[in-house]
Amino acid sequence: MNSAGAARVMNSAGVQARLLAHAESMAAAANSMLDPASAGAGRFEADVKPGKVRAHARVTAAGVYPIRHNLKHNTLLKVLGNG
């Protein structure tokens, strides 16, 4: 397989769907660590974007509360199993 073919496969809709499923699972795990009373103050969100060679998934903190929670408790690292 040539590099152009590999890039098409790694950016395909199927790969993006699989990456998004993993990122959403991580976001859900991170959100479960937040205080339920602060639910309106923001959440962790997942998204996926195609790249030049492969698609990229990410989990981001959408709001001040999850940003501070991540800074204080390393929430996203814990979700990955490294914290």
Taking the alpha carbons of the first and last residues, their distance comes to: 38 Å
**What strand line-up does the widest sheet have?**
1-2
**What is the overall shape?**
elongated
Order of helices and strands: HHEEHH
What proportion of the residues is helical, as a percent range? 40-55%
Mean pLDDT figure: 93
What is the CA-based Rg, rounded? 15 Å
Give the tally of β-strands.
2
Main pleated-sheet profile: 2 strands, antiparallel
Give unreliable regions as ranges: none
Total of helices = 4
Report strand %: 15-25%
Please describe what this structure looks like.
- With 83 residues, the chain is α+β, with helices and mostly antiparallel strands.
- Helices cover 53% and strands 17% of the residues.
- The protein has four helices and two strands, in the order ααββαα.
- It has helices at 3-10, 13-32, 64-73, 75-80; strands spanning 43-49, 56-62.
- The chain has a two-stranded antiparallel ribbon with strand order 1-2.
- The longest helix has 20 residues, at 13-32.
- The model has no long low-confidence stretch (mean pLDDT 93).
